[in-house]
Amino acid sequence: MRGFFVEYCSVKSEIITIGDEILIGQIVDTNSAWMANILHDNGIEIGQITSVSDEKKHIIEALDNAFKRADLILMTGGLGPTKDDITKATLCAYFDDELEFRENVFVQVKSLFDSYGVKMPAVNRMQAEVPSTCITLMNKKGTAPGMWFENEGKVLVSMPGVPYEMKYLVEHEVLPRVKKQFKTPELVYQTVLTQGIGESSLMEILGGWEKAVLDNGLKLAWLPAAGKVRLRVSGKGNSRLALETKIAQYVNQLPALIPDYYVGFDADELQVVVGKLLQKQNATLSTAESCTGGHIAHLITLVSGSSAYFEGSVVSYSNRIKETALGVHWESLKKHGAVSKQVVEEMAIGVKNKLGTDYSLATSGIAGPSGGTEDKPVGTIWIAVATPNGVRSELFKFGDDREKNILRTSQTALRMLQKELLKRS
User: Fold this and answer.
1) 198 and 76, same structural domain?
2) Which domain holds residue 239?
3) Which residues is 397 bridged to in the sheet?
4) Of 265, 297, 321, which one is at a domain's C-terminal end?
């Protein structure tokens, strides 16, 4: 209801991940990034993220520090049945508690093995032993339950480190309890995707706009990545409607302020935006990739339902494949080289004809770090887009980092396709 305000308090949280494998770089801590994002989306402040080793002393120190600062602590790792998993024993020591057997957890663990048609190893019985003071959070995706502890009005949640198990527990067990335990503010944000301009150049264009956003009590985050920059405008308060109205006032100005770089609202990736446009036009797409090595096709097929408009790709890395599979003329390759306007346009036309699509994308360039010449240094990239009305190509100079060149070329190619599709939408 408009004008209805709810009192709220700011909930501060911290994340602790446990595991030597994180500290030595054996695995990447994706759990923290995912949890931080979902906590933020639910109006919960993230004060700190800490990774500690599989040592009792380090875990206890991390808990002591977190309880001094945070209302809610989410902890992952160390809940397996092997001897190096010490989290449960450490939590018992921390809370001056002891393990007890929970029959309902045992039944859940055993049923999981039964569903796989596998006899449960005896060691997994230990998974049903948890600190007596915790509330068990049933884990339907694995054998280790989550554990909810309350301590002087603050909450600690211990969860397994396996990402899909942690995500299940957060979404189905932790967040519903947190929302009952704490009154959180309304948090509203909208993300705009831009492409084709760097962060600093974009800031120069949008300096006055940014000042107006900040002066009106909103926050602005600049989120750069290879070939693209996201702008996230956010606000926190009592009234969702008031926040949505205020944010929309500024976000709706961006298409006119940066028409050459604006892609869309709501953080849709370019491959999603392009896919929607293709479906709207009932059109199909193919790609012919050299320097991107199939990365554009990879991005496109990340989107569920892309089979409705994407026919396939030819990764024509060598000149022989460009000639035999795509019909690129040998004279063009010999006279102009593989990295040229003539060749990339013939690639786009060739794959479009070969796969019978309405549109096609083609890339040819020198990704690096080797292979450059004085005339065509590393980072020289040609991109072509073929449409029902012809073919258009463009030359880019991206730099000497191979991975970034592949990512930027892929993003730029999709952006070129988007512009062509918009002409016909």
Assistant:
1) no
2) 188-265
3) 380
4) 265
Contacts of 289 (CB under 8 A, 6+ apart): 295, 296, 297, 313, 314, 315, 316, 361, 362, 363
Give yes or no for a cis peptide into 369 (omega within 30° of 0): yes
pLDDT band at 266 (very low <50, low <70, confident <90, very high): low
- For residues 276 and 407, state if they share a domain: yes
Pair (57, 75) in one structural domain? yes
User: What would the mean pLDDT of 114-135 be, rounded to a whole number?
Assistant: 92
Asked if 305 and 197 sit in the same domain, the reply is no
Domain CATH number, residue 364: 3.90.950.20
Report how far residue 173's alpha carbon sits from residue 167's, in angstroms, rounded to the nearest whole number. Answer: 10
Domain membership flag for residue 59: yes
Token representation of residue 350: 């060739």
Instruction: Give me the residue label for tokens 């959070």.
Output: 137
Amino acid in the structure at residue 365: G
pLDDT tens column, 322-367 = 999 999 999 999 999 999 999 999 999 999 999 999 999 999 999 9
CA distance 125 to 118: 14
Looking at the predicted structure, is the pLDDT value of residue 369 above 80? yes
- Residue from 371, 3, 410 nearest 225 by CA: 410
Number of Cβ within a 10 Å radius of residue 177: 14
- Give pTM, 2 decimals: 0.68
Whether residues 329 and 209 share a domain: the answer is no
Contact 51, 29 (CB under 8 A): yes
Which residue(s) pair with 137 in the sheet? 146
The pLDDT-based confidence of 267 (bands split at 50, 70, 90) is low
Instruction: Give how many domains the chain has, as a whole number.
Output: 3
* Within-domain flag for 378: yes
Classify residue 5: in a domain, yes or no: no
Classify residue 155: in a domain, yes or no.
Answer: yes
The closest of 363, 318, 326, 325 to 344, measured between CA atoms, is: 363
Q: 205 and 285 in one domain?
A: no
